[in-house]
Amino acid sequence: MRLVSDPAFGEVDLSASAEELTLLASAVARGEGLLASTCGAETDGLAGVKVDKTAGPGVLIHRDAERQLLVISGDFAGRAVLAENLRAMATDERGGHLHIDYFPGHFYLAEGSVSLVVNSPHGGMPIG
Predict the structure, then answer these.
(1) Per the confidence metrics, is the pTM higher than 0.85?
(2) What are the respective helix, strand and coil percentages of the chain, to the nearest 5?
(3) CB-based burial label for 71 (10 Å; 0-12, 13-18, 19+)
(4) Cis amide bond preceding 57, omega within 30
(5) What is the tens place of the pLDDT at every residue in 16-60?
(6) Apex CA 58: angle with CA 48 and CA 32, to 5°?
(7) C-alpha neighbours within 13 Å on the C-beta side of residue 125
(8) Sign of CA dihedral 92, 98, 100, 104
(9) 3-state SS class at 25
């Protein structure tokens, strides 16, 4: 898994194998886990992802600058939706990427969430 924080755009870019995305989806669904990144030494690289359960409402995705982690925390319902989106990216062989961006009234993301771009392990933009 590779996690790069882009300070210019305020987003985190996540690239992972299908297996790694599936592991992340499982951790999000359970509400617990710590997964390492392969790019922790890069200037804008993050060391990994930490997943926690909280009462919510919704899911908060944020950077822990001190520990250089992406933290995903939230209630069961919100985590279930995010986990399903991650699983879909892991298995959809058409490729592409998924933008997970907060906006007022978002149905599962909490205010203050950073933008997350999840790249498909199956390549770039889908065809047709």
Answers:
(1) yes
(2) 25, 35, 45
(3) middle
(4) yes
(5) 999 999 999 999 999 999 999 987 555 678 999 999 999 989 999
(6) 40
(7) 2
(8) negative
(9) helix
CA end-to-end span of the chain: 28
Residues linked to residue 59 through DSSP beta bridges, in sequence order:
74, 109
- For the purposes of burial, counting CB atoms within 10 Å of the CB of 56, is it exposed (0-12), middle (13-18) or buried (19 or more)? middle
For 73-116, the pLDDT digits (tens) are: 999 999 999 999 999 999 987 878 899 999 999 999 999 999 99
Encoded tokens for 102 = 């907060």
Q: What is the CA radius of gyration of the chain?
A: 14
Q: How many residues does the chain have?
A: 128
DSSP result, 27-76 = HHHHTEEEEE-S-TTSTTB--EEEEEE---SSEEEEEETTTTEEEEEE-H
Q: Which of 94, 101, 105 is closest to 128 using CA atoms?
A: 94
